[in-house]
């Protein structure tokens, strides 16, 4: 089977909504689960590829990074800070920018992913900061899924080539998985009408990922390393056009030791972990004066933390989760300087702490009626303490019909970049250490209707109110950019998703989202309509195909114009059991070679940047 049948998906248990396993229909959120089978069927090559197939989500790319938007909110210049990104439940948003990195800089190869759980809506009642628009939990595969030696080779247009290798071993009470991944993309020459010329050989990308995980009994240890270097072809931030040398480097490393055990005599589970992270960013920018010299923008962050949670089945109709987590950012460095001749413009060193305690209670009020209530207290060193509740009433009105009414709030604390990055003597921007936190309150009502054994319909309506949004504005006195708690936003929307499986093993998922955001620059890069289609089926014998279609309506630009609406189609042919040891895949992104552009921030002379046309990829997999 290339994808899970819908009946199995309907009864699938999810973890990320409540920090314990529960049926998706009983979770206090409409969780979307993307499996390893989906990744294979559609040939997704990055986490961004997978996420933009989810209802209500969309992305934008400025040729340096890919950013994620939800329910109509993705202002140009936002760094995906309003999503909490996790690997196996551990936060990987960096302490400098708080960015959820979803492009090639994401440090995990998708070949190692068992499933992706996306929990939409405010999640601070259980996860704290950054769980503003949703929580993304990427759950890795185990050695039992990848036993033996495996390798993948990939080649494609625009000078794309790469490979990965893994080895999995397991015994009765122990297992080990190690993996490595390397990719190179030469890129294409890009024409920019704003410069009346082409950037030649500058849109390149290199990435390396390493992963290891070992487990003995209830104890496990994992190591994640990801490093990506990307050329900058856009002449952003006032750089000269078509001059080689500009690039960004992102490197993240995470080491974790974890414990997970059943609690007896009560039916429950105790989990705990400690971790240490290291993040480095380095931007090499080309100066106009003196022409061709290098300005280096550098950040470095080191942190450690831990968390513990206890899940208890207190009674047949009562489930309780309590927990606490702590993170200490003990070394956060931000620097900006010219290399030769040397001149320093910024050298900021800071520290930060976050502490959170939470409790969540699930009570069965009557047959088929659940009340899920949770609250969390967080204290951040930059903004002090804050409470965030979540309340959900989940009712099974009849077999196959479930209604969920959900209220929740969330917050985002200002990050080190927004607080302390300032280069006022170079015409850059001003720091603002007095920034406060952002807040959001959300109301959501949804209907999940099972249509027989093979189809499901989900309808959702929501209303979001966000306040004190951290917004980049122009300082009245100095005329330089500065971050302030300035913005407010209201969002209203409806989402509909239909899923169906067929007797021949084919499966489809289609969604439509209508959304409206109001409030200052929150309307920028905010499409009114999103539509998605994913379908996969066996063609003949071992051969299968996966088809994606995506529609994004027009989005407003900073300049006052619009980035036009567009429709994309992606097609992936792949084998399952072609031979005992080999399988192949042939994928085509942007099948019809449509031209479209994404809005970008004030740091660009362009107001929208054209995205890739048709690209073809070939992949060979071997397992022994």
Describe this structure in words.
The chain has 624 residues and is mostly beta strands. The protein has a single domain, classed as Maltoporin, Chain A, CATH 2.40.170.20. It is 4% helix and 59% strand. The protein is built from five helices and 37 strands. The strands form seven sheets. It has a 22-stranded antiparallel barrel. A hairpin with a 7-residue loop joins strand 1 and strand 2. The mean pLDDT is 94.
Please outline what is shown here:
The chain is 4% helix and 59% strand.
> How would you describe the shape?
globular
Number of helices: 5
What's the main sheet like? Answer: 22 strands, antiparallel, barrel
Number of domains in the coordinates? 1
Structural class: mainly beta
List keywords for this structure.
single chain, 624 residues, mainly beta, Maltoporin, Chain A, globular
Ordered list of secondary-structure elements with their pairings:
Layout: H1 6-10, E1 13-14, E2 22-23, E3 32-35, H2 36-42, H3 47-51, E4 57-61, E5 66-70, E6 83-87, E7 90-91, E8 113-120, H4 124-127, E9 134-140, E10 148-156, E11 160-170, E12 174-185, E13 190-192, E14 197-199, E15 205-216, E16 219-231, E17 247-263, E18 267-286, E19 294-315, E20 318-338, E21 343-366, E22 369-380, E23 384-398, E24 401-412, H5 416-420, E25 438-450, E26 455-474, E27 481-501, E28 507-518, E29 529-540, E30 543-552, E31 555-556, E32 562-563, E33 566-575, E34 582-589, E35 597-599, E36 608-610, E37 615-623
Parallel strand pairs: 6-9
Antiparallel strand pairs: 1-2, 3-8, 4-5, 6-7, 8-9, 10-11, 10-37, 11-12, 12-15, 13-14, 15-16, 16-17, 17-18, 18-19, 19-20, 20-21, 21-22, 22-23, 23-24, 24-25, 25-26, 26-27, 27-28, 28-29, 29-30, 30-33, 31-32, 33-34, 34-37, 35-36
